[in-house]
Amino acid sequence: MLTAQWLYALTGCVVMALGLRTALLHPSLLRRVLAINIMGSGVFMLLVAVAYRGPDLAPDPVPHALVLTGIVVAVSATALALALARRLARERADE
Amino acid sequence: MSPLSLALFDILLLVSIVVLAWTALTSADDRRSVILFMAFGLVVALAWARLLAPDVALAEAAIGAGLSGALLLAALRELPSAVPSSGQALRQRATQGTVSVLSAALAGMLAWILTAHFEGPARDELARAVATHLELSGVSNPVTAVLLNFRGYDTLLELAVLLAAVLGILALGPGRAAYRPSGPIFDALARWLTPLLLVTAGYLLWVGAHAPGGAFQAGATLAAAGIVLRLAGSEWIGLPHDGAVLRLVMAAGVGVFLAVGVSLLVLGRPFLGYPPAWAGALILLIESAATLAIAATLVLAFIGGRLPTEADRKGDAVTAPAAGAGANPDPSDNGEPRPC
C-alpha cells in the first residue's frame, strides 16, 4: 500500500462527508449546490487516488476517464440547478 | 524531489484542501464561499497533477474551478441569501448533530473499505487491457482512448446529459441581459485574451490525441473565451444569431457521434467500433464537433437561458421577453436581477 495514495483517498472521504453535511443542512440553495460540487470533488479524489500506482508506474486511465466524465456532468447539473433556483427566486419575488 | 519534501508537499496540499472545503462550506457570506470554492478547485487541480492525472487537472482547473465558479458567481446576485428561520432551534440542533454523525460515519466506512481495497492485491486488469489495445485505438493518450474509443458509449451519453441540461436551462426562460460595455482596460484585456483562448482551445483539441488535453478541456477553454466576451459587454459572443443554427451547434456533439456510430453499423461493424486505420480521424471528427457543442452549451449555461430573439432586440427591452416566453408575459421578466 502506498502511503500517498491512502492519504489522498482518506482526504477524499473527509471532503465528501463535509460536503454531504452542508448539502443536507444549509438553508441557502446556492450553498447546497456548492456543497454538492465539493462532495463530487471528494468522490473524484477517491477515484484518482485509486488510479494512482506510484511514481514509477503509469496510472490507470479508466478512473481518470470516469472523473473527466464526472466533472462535465457535474458542471451541467450545477448549471441546471442554478437556472432552476434562479427561476424559483423569480417566481417567489412575484408572489 | 526527495521523498521527504514530497511528503511535506502532500501534507500541505491535503490540509489546504480540507481547510478550503470547510471554510467554503461554512462561511457566513455566500460571496466569500463561492470565491473559496474556486480556490478549492484550483488546489484540487494541483492534487490531480500530483497524482499523475494531468488530463483531469486541466479539466478541473477549466471546468471545476473556472466555469462552475463563474456560474455560481453569476447566480449570487439573483438568489436570495438564506434567511435563518427562527424557532425550532432545539430540533434543528438535533438534526444537525444527527446529520454530522451520520456523515462522519459514512466517511469512516468509506475509508475502511478503501484501506481494505489498498491492502489487497493490486487490481489492474483494465489498465493492462487499455495498454495492450492502445495501438488499435487511433490515439496514444490512454485517457482519450478510453473516452472516445473503448468507452465511447459513456462519452456519447455524457454529451446527451449535457444537451438535456442545456435544453432544461433554455426552457426556464430568457437569459441574463448582457453586461454593460466594458471600460478601456478590460476591453484591451478581452482583445488579448480572446484570441489566446481560441488558439489554446484548438491546441488542446489537437494535442489530446497524444498528450493531456481533448474535447472537454478544449470546449471549456472555448467557453471561457465566450464568457470573457460576455463580460466585456458583447451580447451574442459570436454564437450564431439564427436559432436553428445555434440548435444545430448544440446538438453537434451527440449528432456527429451518433452519425459515426450508425454509419459503422451500416458498414457491418459494431456500433462505434472504429476500424483501426480510421480511428484517429474519426476520433478527431467527433472531438471537434463535441468541442463546439460543449462550448456553446457552457456559454448558454452562463447566460442562464435563451438568447434574446430578433423580436426582443427590436422591441422595448422591458416587454421584449414576453414575445418568446408566451404564457409568461411578466413585464419584469427581463433577466435583470431584482431586489426581493
Query: What order do the helices and strands of chain A follow?
Result: HHH
Give the count of helical stretches of chain B.
Answer: 13
Task: Please outline the major beta sheet of chain A.
Answer: none
CATH architecture group name of chain A: Orthogonal Bundle
Range of strand content of chain B: under 5%
Q: What overall form of chain A do the CA principal axes indicate?
A: elongated
> How many individual β-strands of chain A?
0
Q: Averaged pLDDT of chain B, please?
A: 84
Quaternary organization: heterodimer
Measured as a percent range, the helix fraction of chain A is over 70%
Structural category of chain B is mainly alpha
List keywords for this structure.
heterodimer, A: 95 residues, mainly alpha, Helix Hairpins, 3 helices, elongated, B: 340 residues, globular
Report on this structure.
The complex is a heterodimer of chains A (95) and B (340). With 95 residues, chain A is mostly helical. Helices cover 84% and strands 0% of the residues of chain A. Chain A has one domain: Helix Hairpins. Chain A is built from three helices and no strands. In chain A, helix 1 runs antiparallel to helix 2 and helix 2 packs antiparallel against helix 3. Chain A is elongated. The relative contact order of chain A is 0.14. The mean pLDDT of chain A is 91. Chain B has 13 helices and no strands. Helix content of chain B is 70%, strand content 0%. Chain B is mainly alpha-helical. In chain B, helix 7 packs antiparallel against helix 10, helix 7 runs parallel beside helix 11 and helix 8 packs antiparallel against helix 9. At the A-B interface, helix 1, helix 2 and helix 3 of A face helix 1, helix 2, helix 3, helix 4 and helix 5 of B.
Topology:
The complex is a heterodimer of chains A (95) and B (340).
Chain A (H helix, E strand, L loop, with lengths): L2 H23 L3 H23 L9 H34 L1
Helix pairs in contact in A: 1-2, 2-3
Chain B lengths: L2 H24 L3 H21 L3 H23 L12 H31 L5 H9 L8 H9 L1 H20 L12 H24 L7 H17 L11 H24 L9 H28 L6 H5 L7 H4 L15
Helix pairs in contact in B: 1-2, 2-3, 3-9, 6-7, 7-10, 7-11, 8-9, 9-11, 10-11
